[in-house]
Each structure stands twice: as C-alpha cells, then as structure tokens.
Amino acid sequence: MSEKYKAIGKGYSYFITITLIEWQKLFHIPHYANIIIDSIRYSQKCKGLELFGYVIMPSHLHLIVRTDMLPLGEVIRDFKKFTAVRIADELCKDLERRPILDVFAIAAKRIKRNKNYKVWQDGYHPEAITSNQLFYQKLKYIHHNPVKAGLVELPEQHPYSSARNYAGLDYVLEIVFEIPQRITYC
Q: Which pTM was predicted?
C-alpha cells in the first residue's frame, strides 16, 4: 500500500473512499443503500467509528471518519466483509440485477481466494486530514459529489449525504458536528 494512502493509527481523522467492483451502481436503490447505512450505524455504535461527513453515491461512498476504539483498517475491513456478504445475498434474490452479481463473481475468480463474490475494490484510500482547511475541502467535495454527478441540483437534496445534517434536514446517519480535534501532521 502506498504511504500516501495509509492510516497511521487510532484517533486520527481520514477522508476515505470505498468503491464497488467496476463501479457497479447499486446504492441509488434504497434497499441496497440501507445495507450500507445499517452497517455504518453498527460501526458507530459498536466499533467507535466517528463520522464527520458522508455521501453514499450509486457506486461508492466517501466518508470523513475517526476511530479511537480500533484501528481504522480493522473497522473498514469488517465493514466491507459484512456488507459484501449482505449485498451478494440480496443480489442472489434480485433477478433484475443478476448481471451485477455476475460481475462480482468474475472478479472473485480472478483473485483465487475461495470466495464466490468480490463486491468491493481493494483498499479504502485513507487520506489523513492534516488541517482545518483540508477538512472543509474534503467535506465540500463530499457534499458536491452528487451535484457534480447530476443526481441533484443542491447538495442537501441527496438523501444519503451529511449535507442534510449540516442543513438541518432529516438525515440517515448521525454525524459529529465539530472539526476533528486530532489533526494528523504528516
């Protein structure tokens, strides 16, 4: 793993990206987005994940996170493992989206790890939040991602974005409304 994309320890804040294999689009469907939402909630409650910003896009998610309880890599590994199984199980029942399951099956065959499906791309590209300026830059990027993709006209219109939290609207995930206190200086 590149030194640029490496979580250096517990207690630091990171901008991370988690992407489906071949950028398959699933999370615009509420049923699949809820798998992600429920798993993030679990990570918040049981693994000490603090969420400062998020957006769930059709093919990927961006988060600004910190964890003091466990190393971030362990939290994300468990998140990806659990959600991969849930997504694959749901796709097995979803005939309309069977081609996506086939893409995940082909990806699994390439890696030879005795898995039926590979749902997520490797890694999560943690970028250390090293200043308040970088925090706000990444938060703005997260919130404008759905606008740039043509999904909505305003950031707070996207149902799966912390832009709704910051705008005082109904939201799907709790966030911490403060700048992370421990800024990483690499």
A: 0.90
Q: Which of 173, 68, 179, 74 is nearest to 134 (CA)?
A: 179
CA nearest neighbour of 63 among 10, 133, 134, 13: 13
Name the residue among 127, 147, 150 with its Cα closest to residue 137: 127
For residue 29, the model assigns a pLDDT of: 97
Helix (H) or strand (E) holding 33: helix 30-47
pLDDT attached to residue 136: 94
Residue 54 phi/psi, 5° resolution? -160, 155
Short-list 84, 87, 75, CA closest to 51: 75
The pLDDT of residue 12 is 79
Arithmetic mean of pLDDT, 176-183: 62
Is the pLDDT at 1 greater than 90, yes or no? no
**Residue 185: predicted pLDDT:** 35
Domains of the chain: 3-166 (3.30.70.1290)
- Alpha-carbon torsion (60, 61, 66, 69), positive or negative: negative
